[in-house]
Design goal:
The complex is a heterodimer of chains A (105) and B (390). Chain A is of the alpha+beta class. Chain A has helices spanning 2-9, 21-29; strands spanning 41-45, 49-53, 57-61, 65-69, 74-87, 91-104. Chain B is built from nine helices and 22 strands. Classes of the chains: A alpha+beta (105), B alpha+beta (390).
């Protein structure tokens, strides 16, 4: 039960799951994963602003919770006074007071 | 920058009710419609978008089932729409730019740099004579042509560059070091005495010496001849060169009258002001020049912004009244004045000449004092004079 919870929260590939080609390449070359495209990335400024690259769309939007579609997972941000500062077809900028950030698979 | 662009192109704050606002957001993102400041409060979502995008929102809103309502319009297109009937504003802007453009066609100030011995006024006057002055139309000049003409008109200058930066013209000049008039070394010439004296040193580099050391010579006497006769009696012509140092005598005399008229200011000052606008003189004070004994001086104060002087200046012509008074000098005062004057003459006339001795003498008559100095000098008295053939 404990392991199941951990798996839900951390989107690490489970034991035996194959790595994607960019992930393999990054591992081989020992460079950060962000060097290869196709993987969503988050940039946080304190708990006030978040830039999400690789956002495929907004699933839920309220002043307390925002769910963003990151392709293979869902990013759930809880907080207060949440706003979408900017939105384009592959990125989003959130602002507000973030209380929790979760990855749902 | 982004704010400026949003202002220029206009933006709209809108509200959406009901339906699926998330779907609406996604459709906007997919359709590359920019959205910012998206807020969702109690089932109502507000956001900003561009005017252009908002016009295309209808099908998207229908798909997402939301109802849109404009809450605020911002930016230039809406401002322009609001003021479209106020022709005066547009006209004012137009007139402003028109005036700016017209004023930019003129030369506002002319600055001269790089001159040392040639005066700025001389250069400005010459340029002015060619039509290039403050307030002149810039398009009237071909700068390259003007520069060429300047070099012809002012032989003192070896190089001139007229740089017009905006409305400010900077004239950069280089002065020419005028070569002394030297007879070319291939032309035959003699060395003659420029003044009478006794020869102390004679160094002949080329030619035949006609005088000896210690000999006295008169002005214009031949010192070194360029005509050399050989043993066969044939003449060869040479460019004679020599250094002839002689002891010479120069006399300077000053006469100072005992009774002199002096100008004493009475304290009455009349200022006549006028405004100089692009070379056009507009008088501010009325009346012509005052009658009587007046000393006139002119002051020009250009209007400046920082270090940049505008082509508008205030010209003040100051008339100072004076009285002529007769002063009688004592012999001591007259002598002091004479010494002052002779010192000026000495620095002008005997410049570069080595003065060995001076003998002063004073004589006075009933009306004036005469002060004389006889200078004994050592100087090079030789000058070249061409032997003219044919």
């Amino acid at each position: 039960m404990k392991t199941k919870r951990r798996r839900r929260q951390q989107p690490d590939p489970p034991q035996g799951q194959k790595l994607s080609v960019p992930q393999k390449a990054a591992k081989m070359l020992e460079v950060p994963l962000s060097a290869f495209g196709g993987i969503p990335s988050l940039e946080l400024t304190g708990n006030r602003e978040m830039t999400v690259e690789g956002c495929k769309g907004v699933l839920e939007y309220d002043e307390d919770v925002v769910k963003l579609n990151l392709g293979k997972m869902i990013l759930q941000v809880r907080g207060r006074d949440l706003n979408i500062k900017g939105l384009t077809d592959d990125s989003a900028v959130l602002e507000g007071y973030f209380l929790s950030i979760e990855f749902l698979t | 920058m982004i704010r400026l662009l949003r202002f220029l192109f206009g933006s709209v704050r809108f509200e959406s009710h009901g339906g699926f606002p998330e779907r609406f957001l996604n459709l906007c993102a997919q359709g590359h419609f920019p959205l910012w400041e998206v807020k969702s409060r109690g089932g109502t979502m507000t956001a900003y978008t561009t005017v252009k995008s908002y016009k295309k929102f209808r099908p998207i809103a229908k798909k997402a089932g939301v109802r849109l309502r404009v809450r605020e319009r911002r930016g230039l297109p809406f401002l322009a729409r609001r003021y479209r009937k106020r022709i005066g504003i547009a006209l004012g802007v137009l007139v402003f730019f028109a005036i700016l453009w017209v004023l930019s066609l003129f030369v506002w100030s002319v600055e001269v740099t790089g001159n040392a011995s040639v005066s700025t006024d001389y250069i400005l006057n010459n340029l002015s004579a060619m039509g290039f002055h403050q307030g002149a139309l810039k398009s009237n000049f071909d700068v390259a042509e003007l520069q060429r003409r300047c070099l012809v008109e002012m032989p003192e200058l070896s190089w001139i560059a007229i740089n017009i930066r905006g409305s400010n013209a900077v004239v950069e000049v280089r002065e020419r070091d005028l070569p002394p008039e030297i007879i070319p070394s291939d032309r035959p010439c003699n060395i003659k005495a420029s003044t009478a004296g006794q020869i102390l040193e004679l160094e002949v580099y080329d030619g035949k010496a006609m005088v000896m050391r210690g000999e006295g010579v008169t002005e214009g006497q031949l010192l070194v001849s360029g005509v050399i006769e050989n043993k066969q009696g044939e003449n060869t012509l040479k460019h004679a060169r020599a250094k002839v140092i002689a002891q010479t005598e120069h006399t300077l005399t000053v006469e100072i009258p005992f009774t002199q008229t002096r100008k004493a200011a009475t304290g009455t000052v009349i200022d006549k002001k006028s405004l100089d606008f692009f070379g056009l003189n507009i008088p501010i004070s009325f009346g012509g020049a005052p009658q009587g004994n007046y000393l006139r001086s002119s002051i020009k104060k250009p209007l400046t912004i920082g270090s940049f002087s505008l082509p508008i200046s205030c010209q003040i012509e100051r008339y100072e009244e004076y009285e002529e008074t007769t002063v009688t000098l004592s012999p001591e005062e007259a002598l002091a004045q004479a010494k002052e004057q002779i010192a000026v003459m000495e620095s002008e006339q005997l410049d570069g000449i080595e003065i060995v001795d001076r003998q002063e003498s004073t004589s006075s008559s009933d009306t004036s004092l005469t002060y004389t100095i006889v200078y004994i000098c050592h100087e090079n008295i030789g000058y070249e004079e061409e032997i003219l053939l044919n």
